[in-house]
Design a protein that fits this description.
Length: 290
């Protein structure tokens, strides 16, 4: 049975219309018995599990029996309309991944990955990717960064963002979309400041007095971390508190993902720091990039 997706509300921005595209509903595949243990382990390790609206699903981009070649052709055409090109392998220091083959498991995994990534990228207005220097979207499986399993990463050194199927079917679908936008914001930040970890004084000044950040997002991995929403004033999520770079990327990810944007909007009505952060990032996206 298909789950009904909650209605998407128009966000108070000129970009709100782009967030409405791609609202759809579809179920996810049941894992084969041989992979059930790994599937359940991935589900338990999903940091977005606690904040997930499990009613939200994404429509597949092709029939279930579509080949990897057919799925690649669909991705190529849809990304070309955004002035982007796909890449199907990853070659860069610190990052490792596998290409999709034409097995039934990989066809299903790529179809699911594309069902989330493509509409997420299509939410942006024309010209944003060119202005930020994004040229490629790398689509792979089994991604790791310095030995840590990841679902996404920015790669400005190759003008790319990278998105992966690491048993994605076990995880929160809208949580993956949030990661799509989150990692793209890290890419934007690098293009703005030539630094992933720039401590932007204008951003820091938006925080309530006494706000302290942690030691960076990488320290959240491998601990059964759950990314709870709005843990205290000024922070959209628990992960945002790990560093100012994660704070920016988290606000951006929440505001660009319809399933999360409604909550961010509601919190911003009474949290002036969070409202100010949200406004700053809308300005970046609305044309502040060179």
């Amino acid at each position: 049975m298909k789950a009904a997706m909650p209605p998407c509300r128009l966000l108070p921005s000129v970009l709100g219309v782009f967030l409405l595209a791609g609202c759809a509903s579809v179920g996810t595949a049941t894992p084969a018995a041989a992979g059930r243990e790994a599937f359940e382990r991935a589900a338990q390790q999903d940091s977005m599990r606690s904040e997930c609206d499990w009613n939200v699903r994404y429509a597949p981009v092709a029939p279930q029996d579509a080949s990897v070649a057919q799925l690649r052709a669909i991705a190529t055409a849809r990304l070309a309309a955004l002035q982007l090109a796909p890449a199907w392998t990853l070659a860069m220091p610190g990052g490792a991944a596998q290409a999709f083959d034409d097995s039934a498991q990989d066809r299903a995994g790529l179809n699911l990955l594309l069902s989330i990534v493509l509409p997420a990228m299509e939410r942006y207005p024309a010209g944003v990717f060119a202005r930020t220097g994004l040229r490629h979207v790398v689509l792979v499986k089994d991604l790791s960064v310095d030995g840590q399993r990841r679902l996404a990463m920015p790669a400005p050194e190759i003008d790319s963002v990278v998105y992966a199927d690491n048993l994605l079917a076990a995880m929160c679908p809208s949580g993956m979309e949030l990661r799509v936008h989150h990692e793209y914001y890290h890419f934007i930040e690098y293009r703005l400041f030539n630094d992933f970890y720039y401590r932007d004084p204008a951003w820091l000044a938006l925080n309530p007095p006494g706000t302290a950040y942690g030691q960076g997002g990488a320290t959240a991995y491998g601990k059964g971390f759950q990314n709870l929403g709005h843990p205290h004033p000024g922070m959209v999520s628990l992960y945002a508190a790990y560093g100012p770079e994660e704070d920016k990327a988290e606000v951006f990810g929440w505001m660009m993902t319809p399933a999360y944007a409604r909550r961010l909007e509601a919190w911003s009505l009474t949290d002036t720091a969070l409202a100010a952060k949200r406004q700053v990032l809308w300005q970046v996206l609305d044309g502040a990039m060179p």
